[in-house]
Amino acid sequence: xxxxxxxxxxxxxxxxxxxxxxxxxxxxxxxxxxxxxxxxxxxxxxxxxxxxxxxxxxxxxxxxxxxxxxxxxxxxxxxxxxxxxxxxxxxxxxxxxxxxxxxxxxxxxxxxxxxxxxxxxxxxxxxxxxxxxxxxxxxxxxxxxxxxxxxxxxxxxxxxxxxxxxxxxxxxxxxxxxxxxxxxxxxxxxxxxxxxxxxxxxxxxxxxxxxxxxxxxxxxxxxxxxxxxxxxxxxxxxxxxxxxxxxxxxxxxxxxxxxxxxxxxxxxxxxxxxxxxxxxxxxxxxxxxxxxxxxxxxxxxxxxxxxxxxxxxxxxxx
Length: 318
Hints:
Elements: H1 6-18, H2 23-57, H3 66-83, E1 87-95, E2 99-107, E3 110-118, E4 121-122, H4 125-143, H5 147-174, E5 175-185, E6 188-197, H6 206-209, E7 214-221, E8 227-234, E9 238-240, E10 245-247, E11 252-261, E12 264-278, E13 282-297
Protein backbone atom coordinates (compact mmCIF):
# COMPACT_ATOMS: atom_id res chain seq x y z
CA UNK A 1 0.00 0.00 0.00
CA UNK A 2 1.40 3.40 -0.97
CA UNK A 3 1.54 6.09 1.72
CA UNK A 4 -1.42 8.42 1.59
CA UNK A 5 -0.94 12.13 2.49
CA UNK A 6 -3.65 14.10 4.28
CA UNK A 7 -3.68 16.64 1.46
CA UNK A 8 -4.92 13.90 -0.89
CA UNK A 9 -8.06 13.41 1.17
CA UNK A 10 -9.06 17.06 0.81
CA UNK A 11 -8.33 17.04 -2.89
CA UNK A 12 -10.28 13.83 -3.33
CA UNK A 13 -13.35 15.29 -1.56
CA UNK A 14 -13.13 18.49 -3.60
CA UNK A 15 -13.11 16.57 -6.88
CA UNK A 16 -15.94 14.38 -5.63
CA UNK A 17 -18.07 17.45 -4.82
CA UNK A 18 -17.30 18.92 -8.22
CA UNK A 19 -18.81 15.86 -9.89
CA UNK A 20 -22.17 16.99 -8.41
CA UNK A 21 -23.10 13.42 -7.57
CA UNK A 22 -25.99 13.08 -5.16
CA UNK A 23 -25.23 12.52 -1.48
CA UNK A 24 -25.94 8.84 -1.43
CA UNK A 25 -23.69 8.20 -4.40
CA UNK A 26 -20.92 10.28 -2.84
CA UNK A 27 -21.05 8.20 0.33
CA UNK A 28 -20.97 5.00 -1.68
CA UNK A 29 -17.88 6.21 -3.53
CA UNK A 30 -16.08 7.48 -0.41
CA UNK A 31 -16.78 4.59 1.96
CA UNK A 32 -14.61 1.95 0.21
CA UNK A 33 -11.76 4.48 0.06
CA UNK A 34 -11.94 5.19 3.78
CA UNK A 35 -12.22 1.52 4.66
CA UNK A 36 -9.16 0.61 2.60
CA UNK A 37 -7.07 3.44 4.04
CA UNK A 38 -8.50 3.69 7.54
CA UNK A 39 -5.29 2.56 9.29
CA UNK A 40 -3.18 5.10 7.41
CA UNK A 41 -5.70 7.84 8.16
CA UNK A 42 -5.72 7.06 11.89
CA UNK A 43 -1.93 6.90 12.08
CA UNK A 44 -1.54 10.26 10.38
CA UNK A 45 -4.27 11.94 12.41
CA UNK A 46 -3.08 10.57 15.78
CA UNK A 47 -0.25 13.10 16.39
CA UNK A 48 -2.55 16.03 15.64
CA UNK A 49 -5.22 14.57 17.93
CA UNK A 50 -2.71 14.12 20.78
CA UNK A 51 -1.53 17.71 20.41
CA UNK A 52 -5.15 18.88 20.52
CA UNK A 53 -5.79 16.98 23.76
CA UNK A 54 -2.60 18.33 25.33
CA UNK A 55 -3.54 21.91 24.51
CA UNK A 56 -7.03 21.31 25.85
CA UNK A 57 -5.99 19.87 29.21
CA UNK A 58 -2.80 21.79 30.03
CA UNK A 59 -3.32 24.95 32.17
CA UNK A 60 -3.27 28.06 30.02
CA UNK A 61 -1.37 30.67 32.03
CA UNK A 62 -1.47 33.10 29.16
CA UNK A 63 -5.24 33.36 29.46
CA UNK A 64 -5.22 34.29 33.16
CA UNK A 65 -5.49 37.98 34.06
CA UNK A 66 -2.90 38.85 36.77
CA UNK A 67 -5.11 41.68 38.06
CA UNK A 68 -7.90 39.19 38.78
CA UNK A 69 -5.49 36.92 40.67
CA UNK A 70 -4.24 39.84 42.76
CA UNK A 71 -7.74 41.13 43.51
CA UNK A 72 -8.87 37.71 44.71
CA UNK A 73 -5.73 37.32 46.78
CA UNK A 74 -6.37 40.70 48.42
CA UNK A 75 -9.88 39.53 49.32
CA UNK A 76 -8.44 36.31 50.82
CA UNK A 77 -5.92 38.33 52.85
CA UNK A 78 -8.73 40.56 54.11
CA UNK A 79 -10.61 37.53 55.46
CA UNK A 80 -7.48 36.18 57.12
CA UNK A 81 -6.69 39.53 58.73
CA UNK A 82 -10.21 39.73 60.17
CA UNK A 83 -9.90 36.18 61.55
CA UNK A 84 -6.47 36.59 63.19
CA UNK A 85 -7.77 37.59 66.67
CA UNK A 86 -9.69 34.31 66.77
CA UNK A 87 -6.46 32.34 67.32
CA UNK A 88 -3.74 31.76 69.87
CA UNK A 89 -0.45 30.45 68.51
CA UNK A 90 3.27 30.03 69.06
CA UNK A 91 5.83 32.50 67.74
CA UNK A 92 9.53 31.73 67.55
CA UNK A 93 11.43 34.98 66.98
CA UNK A 94 15.06 34.78 65.94
CA UNK A 95 17.30 37.85 65.87
CA UNK A 96 21.05 38.31 65.54
CA UNK A 97 21.48 37.99 69.30
CA UNK A 98 18.95 35.38 70.46
CA UNK A 99 15.92 33.21 69.77
CA UNK A 100 12.81 33.60 71.90
CA UNK A 101 9.62 31.56 71.78
CA UNK A 102 6.29 32.99 72.95
CA UNK A 103 2.73 31.95 73.43
CA UNK A 104 0.73 34.62 71.60
CA UNK A 105 -2.50 34.84 73.61
CA UNK A 106 -5.66 36.86 73.06
CA UNK A 107 -6.52 38.24 76.49
CA UNK A 108 -9.43 40.63 77.08
CA UNK A 109 -9.42 41.93 73.52
CA UNK A 110 -5.68 42.27 72.77
CA UNK A 111 -2.52 40.19 72.54
CA UNK A 112 -0.29 39.12 75.38
CA UNK A 113 3.14 37.54 74.77
CA UNK A 114 4.06 34.84 77.25
CA UNK A 115 7.75 33.96 77.08
CA UNK A 116 8.26 30.18 77.24
CA UNK A 117 11.76 29.51 75.85
CA UNK A 118 15.07 31.23 75.14
CA UNK A 119 17.43 29.84 72.49
CA UNK A 120 15.18 26.76 72.22
CA UNK A 121 15.56 25.99 75.91
CA UNK A 122 12.53 26.06 78.23
CA UNK A 123 12.64 28.62 81.02
CA UNK A 124 13.81 27.52 84.43
CA UNK A 125 11.02 26.72 86.91
CA UNK A 126 11.59 30.05 88.68
CA UNK A 127 11.34 32.04 85.43
CA UNK A 128 8.27 30.06 84.38
CA UNK A 129 6.62 30.95 87.69
CA UNK A 130 7.47 34.64 87.21
CA UNK A 131 6.05 34.64 83.68
CA UNK A 132 2.87 32.96 84.91
CA UNK A 133 2.50 35.59 87.65
CA UNK A 134 2.96 38.39 85.10
CA UNK A 135 0.27 36.85 82.92
CA UNK A 136 -2.20 36.59 85.78
CA UNK A 137 -1.41 40.14 86.81
CA UNK A 138 -2.04 41.41 83.27
CA UNK A 139 -5.34 39.54 82.99
CA UNK A 140 -6.50 40.82 86.36
CA UNK A 141 -5.49 44.37 85.49
CA UNK A 142 -7.31 44.26 82.17
CA UNK A 143 -10.46 43.02 83.84
CA UNK A 144 -10.39 45.98 86.25
CA UNK A 145 -9.95 48.60 83.52
CA UNK A 146 -12.41 51.41 83.11
CA UNK A 147 -14.31 51.47 79.79
CA UNK A 148 -12.03 54.25 78.55
CA UNK A 149 -8.84 52.41 79.52
CA UNK A 150 -10.10 49.27 77.81
CA UNK A 151 -11.02 51.23 74.69
CA UNK A 152 -7.55 52.80 74.46
CA UNK A 153 -5.74 49.49 74.95
CA UNK A 154 -7.78 47.66 72.32
CA UNK A 155 -7.53 50.65 69.96
CA UNK A 156 -3.72 50.58 70.23
CA UNK A 157 -3.72 46.85 69.44
CA UNK A 158 -6.03 47.32 66.44
CA UNK A 159 -3.97 50.27 65.19
CA UNK A 160 -0.88 48.07 65.03
CA UNK A 161 -2.82 45.38 63.22
CA UNK A 162 -4.24 47.91 60.80
CA UNK A 163 -0.80 49.35 60.04
CA UNK A 164 0.60 45.94 59.10
CA UNK A 165 -2.49 45.07 57.08
CA UNK A 166 -2.52 48.36 55.16
CA UNK A 167 1.07 47.81 54.05
CA UNK A 168 0.09 44.37 52.72
CA UNK A 169 -2.90 45.84 50.91
CA UNK A 170 -0.78 48.67 49.54
CA UNK A 171 1.37 46.14 47.70
CA UNK A 172 -1.52 45.48 45.32
CA UNK A 173 -1.57 49.18 44.41
CA UNK A 174 2.17 49.82 44.35
CA UNK A 175 3.23 47.13 41.88
CA UNK A 176 2.63 46.12 38.30
CA UNK A 177 2.15 42.36 38.22
CA UNK A 178 2.93 39.96 35.41
CA UNK A 179 2.16 36.25 35.32
CA UNK A 180 5.47 34.39 35.03
CA UNK A 181 3.87 30.94 34.88
CA UNK A 182 2.65 28.14 37.11
CA UNK A 183 4.44 25.87 39.57
CA UNK A 184 3.90 23.54 42.52
CA UNK A 185 4.73 24.57 46.09
CA UNK A 186 4.03 22.58 49.25
CA UNK A 187 1.95 20.18 47.16
CA UNK A 188 -0.26 22.95 45.75
CA UNK A 189 -0.57 24.34 42.25
CA UNK A 190 0.35 28.01 42.28
CA UNK A 191 0.46 31.02 40.01
CA UNK A 192 3.88 32.69 39.99
CA UNK A 193 3.68 36.47 39.62
CA UNK A 194 6.51 38.98 39.28
CA UNK A 195 6.06 42.48 40.68
CA UNK A 196 7.83 45.71 39.78
CA UNK A 197 7.04 49.25 41.02
CA UNK A 198 4.16 50.88 39.19
CA UNK A 199 5.01 54.17 37.52
CA UNK A 200 3.26 57.12 39.08
CA UNK A 201 2.49 55.33 42.36
CA UNK A 202 2.28 57.76 45.30
CA UNK A 203 2.83 56.06 48.68
CA UNK A 204 0.25 57.26 51.24
CA UNK A 205 2.66 57.05 54.20
CA UNK A 206 6.28 56.48 55.20
CA UNK A 207 5.86 52.72 55.59
CA UNK A 208 4.63 52.33 52.02
CA UNK A 209 7.46 54.47 50.58
CA UNK A 210 9.84 51.50 50.63
CA UNK A 211 7.61 49.72 48.08
CA UNK A 212 8.70 52.19 45.38
CA UNK A 213 12.19 50.70 45.36
CA UNK A 214 11.33 46.99 45.55
CA UNK A 215 10.82 44.08 43.17
CA UNK A 216 8.99 40.96 44.26
CA UNK A 217 7.67 37.50 43.46
CA UNK A 218 4.40 35.97 44.69
CA UNK A 219 3.35 32.32 44.74
CA UNK A 220 -0.48 32.29 44.88
CA UNK A 221 -2.56 29.16 45.41
CA UNK A 222 -4.74 28.47 42.37
CA UNK A 223 -7.70 27.16 44.39
CA UNK A 224 -7.87 29.61 47.29
CA UNK A 225 -5.86 32.59 45.93
CA UNK A 226 -3.89 32.59 49.17
CA UNK A 227 -0.30 33.80 49.27
CA UNK A 228 1.77 30.68 49.88
CA UNK A 229 4.93 32.73 49.65
CA UNK A 230 5.98 36.30 48.94
CA UNK A 231 9.55 37.53 48.43
CA UNK A 232 10.53 41.17 47.95
CA UNK A 233 13.87 42.95 47.85
CA UNK A 234 15.04 46.54 47.53
CA UNK A 235 16.70 47.23 44.17
CA UNK A 236 17.55 50.91 44.65
CA UNK A 237 17.81 53.21 47.69
CA UNK A 238 14.58 54.71 49.04
CA UNK A 239 14.52 57.71 51.40
CA UNK A 240 12.00 57.59 54.22
CA UNK A 241 11.16 60.26 56.75
CA UNK A 242 12.61 63.07 54.65
CA UNK A 243 16.38 63.09 55.14
CA UNK A 244 16.30 61.00 58.29
CA UNK A 245 16.96 57.56 56.78
CA UNK A 246 17.43 55.67 53.56
CA UNK A 247 16.63 52.00 52.92
CA UNK A 248 19.46 50.38 50.96
CA UNK A 249 19.70 47.46 48.50
CA UNK A 250 20.19 44.25 50.44
CA UNK A 251 16.94 44.82 52.33
CA UNK A 252 14.58 41.91 51.73
CA UNK A 253 11.38 40.42 53.11
CA UNK A 254 9.89 36.94 52.96
CA UNK A 255 6.39 35.87 54.01
CA UNK A 256 4.90 32.37 54.01
CA UNK A 257 1.34 31.41 54.97
CA UNK A 258 -0.45 28.15 55.75
CA UNK A 259 -4.03 26.97 56.37
CA UNK A 260 -4.97 26.88 60.06
CA UNK A 261 -8.75 26.36 59.83
CA UNK A 262 -11.27 25.84 57.02
CA UNK A 263 -11.01 28.87 54.74
CA UNK A 264 -8.47 30.63 56.99
CA UNK A 265 -4.73 31.01 56.46
CA UNK A 266 -2.26 32.65 58.82
CA UNK A 267 1.47 33.44 58.75
CA UNK A 268 3.86 30.52 58.84
CA UNK A 269 7.10 32.48 58.53
CA UNK A 270 8.25 36.06 58.24
CA UNK A 271 11.90 36.86 57.57
CA UNK A 272 13.51 40.27 57.17
CA UNK A 273 16.97 41.60 56.42
CA UNK A 274 17.11 45.39 56.71
CA UNK A 275 19.91 47.62 55.45
CA UNK A 276 19.61 51.34 56.09
CA UNK A 277 21.59 54.52 56.58
CA UNK A 278 20.62 56.95 59.30
CA UNK A 279 21.19 60.59 58.33
CA UNK A 280 23.01 59.10 55.30
CA UNK A 281 26.05 58.53 57.55
CA UNK A 282 25.48 55.68 59.99
CA UNK A 283 24.79 52.21 58.65
CA UNK A 284 22.12 50.17 60.39
CA UNK A 285 21.53 46.46 59.86
CA UNK A 286 18.80 44.32 61.32
CA UNK A 287 17.86 40.72 60.76
CA UNK A 288 14.85 38.76 62.02
CA UNK A 289 13.37 35.36 61.21
CA UNK A 290 10.03 34.51 62.83
CA UNK A 291 8.10 31.24 62.57
CA UNK A 292 4.51 30.71 63.69
CA UNK A 293 2.90 27.38 64.55
CA UNK A 294 0.35 25.48 66.65
CA UNK A 295 -2.64 27.73 65.92
CA UNK A 296 -5.60 27.00 68.22
CA UNK A 297 -8.87 28.85 68.92
CA UNK A 298 -8.49 31.89 71.17
CA UNK A 299 -9.25 30.94 74.75
CA UNK A 300 -7.24 27.72 74.52
CA UNK A 301 -3.68 27.43 75.77
CA UNK A 302 -1.09 26.35 73.24
CA UNK A 303 2.06 24.30 73.87
CA UNK A 304 5.18 26.11 72.65
CA UNK A 305 8.00 24.49 74.59
CA UNK A 306 11.19 23.12 73.04
CA UNK A 307 9.46 19.76 72.48
CA UNK A 308 6.87 21.54 70.35
CA UNK A 309 9.07 23.40 67.87
CA UNK A 310 7.71 23.61 64.33
CA UNK A 311 8.60 21.16 61.62
CA UNK A 312 8.87 21.99 57.92
CA UNK A 313 5.11 22.14 57.45
CA UNK A 314 4.53 24.58 60.30
CA UNK A 315 2.81 21.98 62.48
CA UNK A 316 4.22 21.01 65.84
CA UNK A 317 6.66 18.13 66.09
CA UNK A 318 5.34 15.18 68.03
